Amino acid sequence: MSTxxxxxxIIAGGIAAYKALDIIxxxxxxxxxxxxxxxxxxxxxxxxxxxxSLAGDKVYSELFSLTDEAEMGHIRLVREADxxxxxxxxxxxxxxxxxxxxxxxATTALLANDRPVLIAPSMNAVMWAHxxxxxxxxxxxxxGVHIVGPGAGDLACGEIGDGRLAEPLDIVAAALRLLAPGxxxxxxxxxxxxxxxxxIDPVRFIGNRSSGKQGHAIAAALAAAGAETTLITGPxxxxxxxxxxxRHIESAAEMxxxxxxxxxxxxxxxxxxxxxxxxxxxxxxxxxxxxxDAPTRLDLTTNPDILATVAAPGPKRPKLVIGxxxxxxxxxxxxxxxxxxxxxxxILANDVSPExxxxxxxxxxxxxxxxxxAEEWPLLSKTELAQRLVARIVAEIKKATP
Length: 402
Ligand code: C5P
Prior knowledge:
By secondary structure, the chain is of the alpha/beta class. 35% of the residues lie in helices and 24% in strands.
C-alpha cells in the first residue's frame, strides 16, 4: 500500500544513525517512499549500501559530485519530497539549520527547502539541555519546524537523561501525521488510561479491574484524527496503540507527574480508573503475616485527583477537559455533580454495576454530559465510542476556531 508520499530523509552523524534504517523500513511498510541524504558524519555510522538497500534508491551525499548533480541536484531533491525528515538530528545540524549554514549537501538542501520539516533530535543529555542547543531548537520551532522527541532513557554514551532518539515507529507516525493532516493536526492530546497500582510493599498493591480498552481506543482515535497524542497508562494487557507516544506508569502519583509534565496540551481525556487511595506508607520489605492470624490494618491516604488538578483554571488548562464517571446508581445525577466539582467540560458517565459487563468488556453505554445537560448514547463498542467522542471533539474545536 503506497501513500504516494515521499520523504527526503537526512541522516546526520550520531550514534543513533543506525536507527534511521529502521525508520526507512517501518516507513516503507506504511507506504512512504524514501530518498536519503547521508551526511559525512552519518556515513561514519551506517554504510551507504545498507541505506540504499533498505530505501530501494541510491543514497546522496556529495554536494559537488557531478554524477549526483547530473542525476539529482539539491534543489530537485527537496522539490520532489513531500516532507524533509532529519533523523537523527545532531546538535551540529540543528545549529546549522538555525543559523542558515550550508556547507554540505544536507544543509544546502535544507536551506533550499520549502517543504515541511520534521527533526528527531538525538544527543547526549547535557548537550540537549545546553542553552545554545535549546535556543537553536526554539528558533527552529518558531520557524515552523516540527520536532519529535527526544525521549528520556539510557543514552549510548552511558549517561541517562533526555536526548534519546524517539522510537522509529513514533517518528514514522509523526511523519504520517504531517503528510496526511487530519482534523486535529497541530493539536496536542493527552489521554490517561487503565488502572493504577498503589504499592503496599514490594510485592503487593491495591489496584482495580480496569482493562484500559476505552482509554487506549480513545488515544488511537485521537492520533488517527491527527492529534499529537500521548497516552499515559497504568498496567494493562494491551499493546501500545499505533501513532501515540506512550508513557507507562504504575501509581496515581506517577500518572499525575507524567500528565503535568506533558502540559500544555489542547485536549485531556481522563479515562483512567485512578485508585482513590494508596497505602499511607509503603513497607520496604514484604510484610509478614501477624502472629495468631491477628487482623492487619492498612492505613490509606487519598490520592491526588488528576482530572480535577488539570481542569482547574490556569494558564496550562487544556481547551477541552473530558472525564469519565463510573457509577453504580443515579448515574446522570452523580456524574452531573462530578462534572461541576471537577471543573471539566464534558463527562462520559457509565453504569459499571457488575451486570453491565462494562469493566473489561468490549462495549460501553454512556451518557454524554456537558453544561447543557445529559445526552444518552446508544450501546457502542469501545472503538465506536472513541470515534464518536473524537468526532464530537472535532466539532467542538471547529466551533471554537471557525
Ligand atoms: O471521582 P471519580 O473517580 O469517579 O472520577 C472519575 C474521573 O476522574 C475519571 O475521568 C478519572 O480518570 C478521573 N480521576 C482522576 N484522578 C483521580 C480520580 C479520578 O483523574 N484520582
